[in-house]
Specification:
81 residues, four-stranded mixed β-sheet, 1 helix, 12% helix
């Protein structure tokens, strides 16, 4: 039996993850009047962001489908552990 390798970024239960540019990152931090350390964290080796080439200090934008809001946007700061 041959198993296909799971493409985690294509799975229906995994929301869309995007790495923000430095300009976008600064805009988000300014909009919410926060620092990078105040964002919730996501590990650099999280399977959902491995293909994004994220490094410590980057910001990840997560867009989840929501039955009430249509789409809900979340931000996470990338950390090493």
């Amino acid at each position: 039996m041959v198993r296909k390798k799971l493409k985690i970024d294509k799975h229906s239960l995994i929301p869309k993850h995007m790495r923000l540019s430095e300009k976008e990152k600064e805009a988000v931090l300014k909009k919410y009047n926060i620092t990078l350390n105040e964002l919730p964290k996501i590990l650099k080796n999280d399977p959902a962001i491995q293909k994004l080439g994220a490094k410590s200090g980057d910001v990840i934008k997560i867009v989840r489908k929501s039955p009430t809001a249509g789409e809900a946007v979340f931000y996470r700061g990338v950390i090493n552990v």
